[in-house]
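Translate sequence into structure tokens.
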Amino acid sequence: MPQTQPTVYPSKPSASVRWRSIAIGLLLIPINCYWITYIELVQYSAQPTIVSLIFTVVFNVLVLIGLNQIFKRFLPRLALSQGELLVIYVMLSVASATAGHSMMEILVSTLGHAFWFATPENDWKDLFWRYIPRWLVVADKDVLSGYYEGDSTLHTRQHLLGWLTPVMYWFAFLFALLFVMLCITVIVRKPWTEDEKLAYPIIQLPARMTSDGFFTNRLMWVAFGLTVAFDIVNGLHHVFPAIPSIYEKAYRFRFTEKPFSAMGWLRLGIYPFVLGIGFLIPLDLLFSTWFFFWVWKGQQIIGSVAGLEGTGYPYVNYQGFGAYMGIFLIAVWRSRKHLQNLLGAKNRLTSERDEPMSPRTLVVAFISGVAFLTFFCLKAGMSLWAILIFFGLYYAFSTAVSRMRAELGSPMHDLHYTGPERVMVAALGTRPLGPNNLSMFSFFWFFTRTFDSHPMPHQLEGFKLASTSGVRSRFMLFAILAALLVGILSQFWALISIPYRLGALHEMSRVPIIYGSEPWRHLQNWLTHPLAPDYWAIGFTGIGLLFALFLMLMRMKFFWFPFHPAAYAAVCGSWAVNYIWFSLLVVWGLKLILLKYGGRNAHRKAMPFFLGLILGQFTVGSLWTILGMVFNIPAYGIWP
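Result follows.
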């Protein structure tokens, strides 16, 4: 079956990319961070950061493109080039991913929770307060009262000073965490982008919408108009139920008798933006995604037949973690020559040619970042061996997620409740880890709870966009670092100031309370009911790793082998795949027919239509959230 690799089309040389693009990106980041916080914590609508392509970022760039057309007509010297627009896109993307649903939103909600909600009944004060470093939390209830009860403001001397110390320490930690990711991204950028030429499906929309001619395509406007019309009507139905909706985004059903009842709810979801992103994914990866979804459901049926319900079988989350470790090992093996030559003489001679960092600088930067994280955790009371294992697993997982995004382009990639700390507890039990390590694991919940909002793939895609649009990679590196710096501080401000106004216990839908309680309840259970090693969980982790390696070996030996380890990893333990598998099945069928009977030319001509589906739904979805903020009405979400 013929395959098509997505391409991007640069329209301007690097000389047209100026520092003003970074300035514009830095101005937009605080606005975008506030917008995301309001959508995800106050409106609890659409959850933009759990999607690989963040719709608030796309909307910001769309607005800039509209303004740019005016400048091109009347003030052409002020018009932004494609490279400048893409720099702004990347800056907003990396800042949004850091700000989002599975990172900073959880961090801030945990900083005061253990002290505000401590009661004689849960005995948190005697159970684990002594293991919590005071420089990492807000323990003063006079400072916390406004955060939880509202009708107050962050901008008082008492409140600002109460949050200052933990915010600065966590800012330093988070920046170092993301900086080490950036170093790894620089290491893998060249072999993945230039040597293996991975597809990077996610970048196709921003690359094409910033190029010349995209908005003159009629098929794109047809798809755009259809999705806008559907979501306007459905949004009106959401606000005024008397207005009928056009279609339900997801239809649910379940079997009531065993063994099929073990599958739980099955959802037939039709999301135009998922259809659009799915069309960008290579055909074999599309097939593998929905196929492994049914493999997962089949395992649940087998477990029910064997009487294993309630035992943890099939440990699908641990299978997923193992599969990601397999993808990491595959990526390291494929890049081994590049890694071996990283400090070689030949590499030193060519390192200055549009490389983000020289090899020597890169190694020093990486070691410095790891050293800071190690020192931070040692000061907080962790053991050195636990630090090294935890962050080794975390960065291996992060590299695998980035590899999967670059190759598969999955619309979502979430692995819930199976981060490095859970694997370590399963392997060792809680007693060998001790209360100090377990307490810090509770803090790390903000970046291990789930991995859908992961910044590292956005960093990698930024360098890919730079290479295809004529932006110097060192310029992009500086833009990403500036975005991280301003993005972290902006999100701290948004996540703390909004609850002081609305109240985390009242108008804010109690989402911060849910996020804040999870890690401390886990710590309470670990300390009151110590866990023994779970060898079944570790065994299925090993099965996931070996199965991923087997799939890759088969693909290397047999070109026709259709199953891909990246799809297997993306499906295992994913909440999102329950909603999107049917959309991916539909677009797989459409793409299969199109390629079979129309070939590459038909695929190329159909591409704007599917990009229009994404852009149309993202546009109207963004507008509904803005209207919800302005008029304080329920916000319609394009995504559950």
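Note: The chain has a mean pLDDT of 93.
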